[in-house]
Structure formats: structure tokens, C-alpha cells
């Protein structure tokens, strides 16, 4: 199977989430009346789908601690990133809307003598480090007056980029479960139980073949497993899968998958002819019709290789969006969605 990866549409922004940690700054005085601390604990590259466009951002986790006796408020321009080499500043992305990341809303505030965690998104192009950046936080009192600024150094904050891991996990899953190949990356990246999902796929694939290839005739277990293995080998050798990362955060991901797989539906006439010919050849024997039919279907297993030689590879016209969740550092593919079920059928021989 050949794989190609596309991470979002435009690869280049950085989403910053503010939470608590390494960089610390304080400010004193004015009507605010005391120190204001800001701490940055983490920085993650993320891919966010915003208004049908996927972009790469950096997510900083920041915690703001208000030690004053008044509420502190932030407007849409409250957080900026400053390049310490060029002195250029970048405003936060205040219009980002995502189910995966709860970006700070306009007018967010911190109550007196309390702290708040916010997510702020920045577009920094293809930056892979925050070494030459600092976070500027402008705060105002509850009347939006008396503006103060906090500077948080980011030179010690490591930018972590794991946006490629969900696609690697899904690729390993498809190779192992759908194509019957032991992907070396499966145990490293995938949280799904391999044995359970393999058994479920085999069961569903046999049921699909019985319904769509054999007019609801039942296959013996050994015959069904052999047919699935032969089809998996065909797809492992000739299938192609394209991946487009729609969203990727440290906890969740959504990937658009476009497979090109073996379609058995165009070969249905050839399949019926082989089985019917085998049944007709035994029609004068002393066996019951059920025995003749079972024998014909078992014979078909040996001839399935000839069928697969004629089978065409078809590219899916409707990509499926597969959801993944991070479980203890590995990625669990959601097998309960209609999109997953539709994708799995493409590897069973269906082309719709």
C-alpha cells in the first residue's frame, strides 16, 4: 500500500494556549493595585480546521494569576507574541472557532485574588521554536482602564510538535487491520486492541462477501478467512491511501482518508459464473443441493486468485473523516462512526 500525507491545507500557523509554568513576569501599581503573574507551561503545535481551512498553529498553555483586589479583563488584542530579534509583534487569532481547542473569548476576565487558564492562538508561519519570542499580555481593570503589560520570556519553553503522530497511527492501523500486514508502528502509535479489531474486520468482511458476492449463501469459516486473506494481500500490494489531517491537537485528531482499493462489485458476474458452473457440474451427483453449493463455494476459494487478477482498483469519490483520541500517549481510532464503517467496507471489496 502506498501512502501520502497532507497536513491540513496551509501548513504554517502557530496556535498558542496560555496556562502556567516556565516564563514568569510581574507588574505592580496603578489602579490594579498589586502584582500580576503569568506563567507558560507548555507549547504544542496543533492543526485547527477553521472555516473549512486547516492550518498549523502553536498552542501555548498559559496561566494568569491576578493578585490584585480588582478584576482584570482582556480584549481581543490582549495577547501578542514579540520576536525579540526583530521587535515585530504578532496578534493572537481571536476569530478561531474549534471544537478541539477552546480559544479565549473576547472580554475574558480574571477575578480578584484568583487565577485563570486561557487558550490563545497565534499564526507564526513555520516556526519550530519559540527561543526568540516572548509573550506580551496587556491587562486592564474592570472598567477597561489603566492598562498594564506583562512580559513572559519563552526562551525556555520547548515547542512540541506531534501533529504527524495521528496519521502515522491511522496508517499503521489500516495496514494491520484492513490489509492484514504487521505494521511495525502499530504497537508504538495505536491504542486499539489489535486482536479484537482484526477479528471484527474479518467477521464483517465475510458477512459482506456472503451478502454481496454469494447471494446470501453462507461461507464455511475456513473458506471465508482464506478469501479475506487473499483480498487483503491484493490491497496490501496495490492499494493507495491518501491522508489529510483536518485537525490535530495533543488529545484529539480528525483525518480525511481517501483510499484506492480493490472493487469486487464489478466482478460479481464473473464470481456468479464460477460458482454456478461448479454447482451445475455436480448437479447429477448423490449429494444434497446444500452440499453441492458448499462444495462449489469452497472450490471458488481456489479460483479467487484468478478473479483478483481481473479486479480493478478504484479511488473513493467520497473521503471519510476518521476521528482519533489520545489514550496514554497512543492514538485510538474511533470504530463506532459511520465514516469508519464506510472506510472499512472499501477494504472488503465495496466501492460505495
UniProtKB/TrEMBL annotation:
Protein name per Swiss-Prot or TrEMBL: DUF5105 domain-containing protein
Keyword Membrane in annotation: yes
Domain DUF5105: 158-348
Lineage top rank: taxon: Bacteria
Lineage: Bacteria, Bacillati, Bacillota, Bacilli, Lactobacillales
Keyword Membrane recorded: yes
Transmembrane segments annotated in the record for this chain: 5-27
Source organism: Weissella diestrammenae
Pfam families xref list: DUF5105
Keywords: Membrane, Signal, Transmembrane, Transmembrane helix
Amino acid at each position: 500500500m502506498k501512502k501520502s500525507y497532507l497536513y491540513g491545507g496551509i501548513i504554517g500557523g502557530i496556535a498558542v494556549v496560555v496556562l502556567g509554568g516556565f516564563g514568569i513576569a510581574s507588574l505592580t501599581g496603578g489602579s490594579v493595585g498589586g502584582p500580576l503573574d503569568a506563567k507558560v507551561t507548555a507549547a504544542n503545535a496543533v492543526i485547527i480546521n477553521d472555516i473549512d481551512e486547516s492550518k498549523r498553529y502553536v498552542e501555548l498553555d498559559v496561566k494568569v494569576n491576578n493578585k490584585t483586589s480588582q478584576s482584570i479583563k482582556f480584549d481581543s488584542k490582549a495577547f501578542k507574541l514579540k520576536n525579540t530579534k526583530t521587535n515585530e509583534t504578532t496578534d493572537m487569532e481571536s476569530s478561531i472557532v474549534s471544537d478541539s481547542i477552546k480559544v479565549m473569548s473576547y472580554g475574558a476576565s480574571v477575578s480578584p485574588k484568583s487565577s485563570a487558564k486561557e487558550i490563545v492562538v497565534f499564526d507564526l508561519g513555520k516556526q519550530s521554536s519559540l527561543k526568540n519570542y516572548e509573550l506580551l499580555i496587556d491587562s486592564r481593570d474592570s472598567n477597561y482602564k489603566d492598562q498594564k503589560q506583562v512580559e513572559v520570556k519563552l526562551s525556555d519553553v520547548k515547542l512540541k510538535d506531534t501533529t504527524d503522530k495521528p496519521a502515522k497511527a491511522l496508517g499503521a492501523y489500516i495496514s494491520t487491520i484492513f490489509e492484514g500486514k504487521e505494521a511495525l508502528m502499530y504497537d508504538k502509535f495505536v491504542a486499539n486492541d489489535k486482536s479484537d479489531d482484526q477479528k471484527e474486520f474479518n467477521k464483517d468482511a465475510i458477512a459482506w462477501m456472503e451478502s454481496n458476492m454469494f447471494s446470501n449463501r453462507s461461507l464455511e469459516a475456513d473458506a471465508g478467512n482464506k478469501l479475506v486473506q487473499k483480498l487483503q494481500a491484493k490491497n496490501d500490494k496495490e492499494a493507495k491511501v491518501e491522508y489529510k489531517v483536518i485537525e490535530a491537537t495533543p488529545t484529539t485528531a480528525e483525518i480525511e482518508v481517501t483510499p484506492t482499493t480493490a472493487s469486487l462489485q464489478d466482478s460479481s458476474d464473473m464470481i456468479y459464473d464460477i460458482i454456478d458452473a461448479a454447482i451445475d457440474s455436480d448437479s447429477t451427483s448423490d449429494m444434497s443441493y446444500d452440499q453441492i453449493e458448499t462444495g462449489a463455494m469452497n472450490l471458488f476459494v481456489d479460483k479467487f486468485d484468478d478473479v483478483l487478477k481481473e479486479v480493478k482498483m478504484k479511488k473513493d469519490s467520497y473521503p471519510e473523516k476518521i476521528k482519533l483520541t489520545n489514550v496514554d500517549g497512543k492514538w485510538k481510532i474511533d470504530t463506532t462512526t459511520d465514516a469508519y464503517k464506510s472506510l472499512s467496507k472499501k477494504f472488503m471489496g465495496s466501492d460505495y
